Amino acid sequence: MNTEILKIEPKSIDIAAELLRKDEIVAIPTETVYGLAGNGLSPNAVKKIFEAKGRPNDNPLILHISSVDWLYRYAEEVPRLALKLAERFWPGPLTMIMPKKSIVPKETSGGLDTVAFRMPNSPWTLKLIEACDFPLAAPSANLSGLPSPTRAGYVYNDMKGKIPLIIDGGQCSYGLESTVITFIEKGVKILRPGGVTAEMLSEFCETEIDKAVIEGLKDTDKALSPGMKYKHYSPKAEVFMVECDDDEVFAAFVNENSDENTIVLAKNSDNIKAKTLPYGRSAKQEAETLFASLRKADETGAKKIYVQAPSKEGIGLAVYNRLIRAAAFKVIKL
Ligand code: TXA
Ligand code: MG
After folding, report:
1. What is the C-alpha separation between 39 and 30, in angstroms, rounded?
2. What is the pTM of this model?
3. Which residues surround ligand 2, an ion (CB under 5 A)?
4. pLDDT tens digits along 168-184
């Protein structure tokens, strides 16, 4: 199959809608990462998404919607708190899990009786969803296990020959996937941290952070979100997360332990002799650059990547959560 890349504009939205109506799958830009979209009500389209990604079929997909009203089409029960959060944070990087109606096929929900919803903050993608008049099921547009793509070119690397069309909307502004929450008696529980932070949610309701966000799952734990179980975000090189707030101590450590096949992601690269790639001094910059820099490190043939650990506050928690998985929980404390 030939994979076309089209710049985002009205004509390419029409072409994408036409393909989606025919149960084809199309990569689309969102403000978080690129998604691999198909008709979320069509088992046939959803199967193609799982196949193209090589994704385990018990890992459910998010339904992307263009209007809050659509919740009533597809959710059996819409918590009042969900409406409040939607009003404040949608369109945006917040995904909410609710009981599903039977019109949502089990293929989409990975066999669960709940389904996740998000309204992406990307005007053209919202127009596309509206034009389709069905929700777009869309996981991140990477091969399962690799870092999520933040540019059309990275989608192409993973999906060429497997899908007919990539809509190129430029670089994603957040660079990390959305916050995933579920509703609990007192408020919400964060299953995956993202751009809508625990601090932001706690202004509205009690907000718990699932312990798997930081610790990962023990073999005996039940995964509240199937995505927690799987290896994630990993580049080919071996990644180490280095916890160290003192930039000089960090620089001395990596200078001592690096060779020509080492890449370093540091908050401050001034005194670092090894090759470095863009990272950031703030959690927001780290979120924007992390996945792209992990992919670039692989392109240079790196064998080992040292990354200075982010703080666990605000969007830093999301960076920490992705990084500790990319590092397969290998943490060096200095
Ligand atoms: O920012 C994002 O969320 C991007 C863009 C494309 O919207 N999408 C994305 O999708 O990251 P995906 O499939 O890569 O991650 C969705 C996560 C998975 O960890 C999945 O297990 C979890 O959400 N999830 C989806 N539906 C769920 C449900 N019903 N119950 C629990 N977890 C669910
Ligand atoms: Mg993903």
Report:
1. 17
2. 0.94
3. 140
4. 999 999 999 999 999 99
